Amino acid sequence: YLAFDFTGVVYLLVGLVALRAAWALGSGPEAWALLQAQFANPIYVAFHAVTLAAVIFVGVRFFRLFPKAQPARIGPAKPPPRPVVHAMLYAAWIGITAGLVAVLGGIIP
User: Fold this and answer.
1) What is the DSSP letter of 81?
2) Residue 15 CA to its chain's centroid (Å)
3) 22, 23, 43, 109: least CB-packed within 10 angstroms?
4) Which of 89, 67, 76, 17 is nearest to 97 (CA)?
């Protein structure tokens, strides 16, 4: 539980970094270039690696618990087996992530 709670602190810090980035964007090209140069610092790179680990940790935990929270029946239909629900969730997660990487990487305009 402590590791899960720690991710909240990580998300708070990510939010503050996002606010800082938005402020730099509004302050002009020089401020944005300076912020990008600061993001190349190994401390920021390590922080973003920790953030990635926190997101994966929470995502895996959510996907593991999600099928258990579903009702046994939805009207006359039964939900698919838990392994199928897990596979669909992970496929959607990987697909959305790949799409975002493609858009942010400039592969898809």
Assistant:
1) P
2) 12
3) 109
4) 89
CA dist., res. 55 & res. 62, Å (int): 10
Question: Which residues, 6+ apart, have CB-to-CB distance to 85 below 8 Å?
Answer: 66, 67, 70, 79
Which residue intervals of 1-109 are DSSP H helices?
A: 2-26, 29-39, 42-65, 82-104
Q: pLDDT of 81-103, one tens digit each?
A: 878 888 888 899 899 989 999 99
Cα–Cα dist 44/2, whole Å: 23
**Looking at 3-7, 9-13, 41-45, which range is the least confident one?**
3-7
pTM of the model: 0.66
Q: Which amino acid belongs to residue 6?
A: F
Q: Give exposure, 59-90, as e/b (b: 16+ Cβ within 10 Å).
A: eeeebeeebeeeeeeeeeeeeeeeeebeeebe
